[in-house]
Amino acid sequence: MRFTTLLAAASSLALLSSAAYAAGTDDGDVDAVIVTRLPTEPQSVLGLTVITDEDIDRRQAIFAADILGDVPGLSLSRNGGFGGVTTVRMRGAAGDKTLVLIDGVVQNDASSPNGGYDFSGLDLADVERIEILQGPQGSLWGSDAIGGVISLTSRELNGLRLGLEGGTYATVRGSAAAGIVGDRLAVNGSVSGYRSDGVSKAANGTEDDGFESWTASAGGRVSIGDKVSLDGRVRYSRLQTDIDGYDAFFAFGDTADRSESESWSGFARLRADDVGGLDHSLTVSGYNLQRDNISAFSSSYEADRATVRYTLGRGGAEDALAFVAGLERDETEASVSTGDTADLGATSLFGVLRWRPIDPLTLTGALRYDDPDDFDSETTARLSASYAVGAGVTLQASWGQGYKAPTISQVVCDFCFPAGPSLGLKPEKADGWDLGASWRSPDDRVFLQVTGYRLEVEDQISYGIGRYLNIDKTTTTGVTAAFDAEVGPVTFKAGYAYTDAINATTGARLLRVPEHSGSVSLGWTGDRFDTQLTVRAEGEQADSNPSTFSAEIRDGFVTADLTGGWKLNDKITLTARIENLADEDYQESLGYGETGRAAYIGIRFRN
Questions:
Q1: Strand pairing partners for 185?
Q2: How far apart are CA 533 and CA 325, in angstroms?
Q3: What is the CATH number of the domain that holds 47?
Q4: How many CB atoms lie within 10 A of CB 8?
Q5: Cα(586)–Cα(323) distance, rounded to whole angstroms?
Q6: Cα–Cα–Cα angle for 514, 515, 516, nearest 5°?
Q7: pLDDT at 420
Q8: Which label site among 23, 220, 275, 560 has the fewest CB atoms less than 10 Å from its CB?
Q9: Which domain range does residue 304 map to?
């Protein structure tokens, strides 16, 4: 497979030498975000949320889904607790329109019918930072980024971290990570494991459905002279999940079904800084996923993705003028239900330019040309402006385009009747705009932001009468608000989202997108003790009953989690966490079971 060669290259560089993907960032740009392709100060990016290592620790989040549900504008649906298929929708767009990156490597499953990503087992043990950029980002990342992008950056660790936790449902989680960081050489690695007896995936079930996951990663970098460096990383994940399905009478409930998946991803990068006045980067990345659905009608799937990218640019986050331009070749291969394989590829050119003509004003433009092998070429653009009015007030606006090429399953028309490839299928297209205002206090302890947006998706691909067709148009109009405050040892965070997402063809509400959602967290950090209470609420949402396949309403819910830590000394901390504090009987997705009150205790060592 093409992936094997790329993985070998990435592994070799990782063993030689950061996990840091932020190409072109300088030491002075450590807080710059890189989901924007060009290192950028966060305050100038509209629709951006950054989740830091400290945020993950305070929340005691094990998996990405544990913390992404707190972000306004994101709606999370899970087909049952402990490993149930988990989808994140951004601004009402379907989950397949969320592009997921780990260290810049695309993770979306090319073998699934819609090409979406399952967040159920995305372990955060080796993750230092999550950057979430909402709205269509086709000009930055090409296909699949209609709703937005979720980019995770792995940790470059200097020292040792150990963790062990156990609790309700016979749940056990352990993790270990170690690394050495020097001026010219860095090596690091981590491993984490998780298992639980779980709860029934079907809300009407009685048997426990277990979940087990393993994740390991290794990365490094080495400097060759003053201008040239190599870095790379590989990541491995293995999941085993008990799931519920349909019996011989096609009734939804307890079954012996299960799913297993195994994935590898990695990148290797050569950088040359300030050569001919420009910074150059050549990156080779790859991804492989194998998944098996084991039931009375078992099936197996495999997906490979290989990407080669060359970029050149100049300027960091604090420079008045900065740009990056690149050339990219992406090739994807996947199997379908018949066992046959097919492939898709695309060649792309892109560029991002940021200009600060006067200190208060930042202008950014991006343009991308994608030339898929099997479809007409697509050009997408994005424009944004940020103006610091004064007294801590900033006004922002942006407009962007996105597109999503048909997946391999849609092209070959897998599960279609009569069999045969799709004819005339076109990429989905999107336009979106944002208007926002924010205020930050002079001491940087209080922050308030309000954003209004609209997203329109045309030619959305749906499964019609036995075939995939471009038939739908969807629109989302919404408002998000975020408030952060830090007063002495007390921290307060609140987020709210109003999301009006409809199928413009039928007027019906889009499934699994609550109209109202929000979260509030209150934390306290002392010299030795810290605690945080997080309350998350969702209003009712349109859904589909898995037992009857009819459209129904899933009730709203409110849940609360409480976390705490006690430092025995500078290196060892005892942790405790209670999830679903009020023992709420709720469902993330209609017909699927969730946990009741659950408690966990653990210990952390950090050196």
A1: 222
A2: 44
A3: 2.40.170.20
A4: 14
A5: 48
A6: 90
A7: 86
A8: 275
A9: 2-152+160-606
- pTM of the full structure: 0.94
Q: What is the pLDDT of residues 304-330, one digit of tens each?
A: 999 999 999 999 999 999 999 999 999
Q: Phi and psi (nearest 5°) for 512?
A: 60, 35
Give yes or no for a contact between 595 and 579, defined as CB atoms under 8 angstroms apart.
yes
Identity of the residue numbered 81:
G
User: Can you list the pairs that 61-66 forms with residues at least 24 positions away whose Cβ atoms lie under 8 Å?
Assistant: 61/124, 62/123, 62/124, 62/173, 62/194, 63/119, 63/120, 63/121, 63/122, 63/123, 63/124, 64/119, 64/122, 64/124, 64/127, 64/130, 64/150, 64/152, 65/119, 65/120, 65/122, 66/124
CB atoms within 10 A of CB 339: 10
Q: Could you give phi then psi for residue 295, rounded to 5 degrees?
A: -160, -165
Task: Look at strands 48-52 and 551-554 and give their pairing.
Answer: unpaired
Distance CA 248, CA 324 (A): 57
Compute and round to an integer the Cα radius of gyration of the chain: 23
- Three-state secondary-structure class, residue 11: helix
Closest alpha carbon to 518 in 544, 542, 483: 483
**Residue 352, CB half-sphere, CA atoms under 13 Å: how many?**
27
Say which amino acid occupies 213: S
**How far is it, in rounded angstroms, from Cα 111 to Cα 297?**
18
- Residue 505 confidence class, pLDDT cut points 50, 70, 90: confident
Of 438, 365, 356, give the one whose Cα is nearest residue 398: 365
Looking at the predicted structure, is the pLDDT value of residue 251 above 60? yes
Distance (Å, rounded) from C-alpha 270 to C-alpha 230? 5
Contact predicate 168/92, CB 8 Å: no
What is the enclosing helix (H) or strand (E) of 400?
strand 393-404
How is residue 231 annotated by DSSP? E
Nearest by Cα to 556 from 543, 541, 545, 534: 541
Cβ within 8 Å of residue 4, ≥6 positions away: none
pLDDT in tens, 449-471: 999 999 999 999 988 888 999 98
Report the alpha-carbon distance of residue 244 to residue 293 in Å, rounded: 11
Enter the tokens of residue 533.
Answer: 């209470």
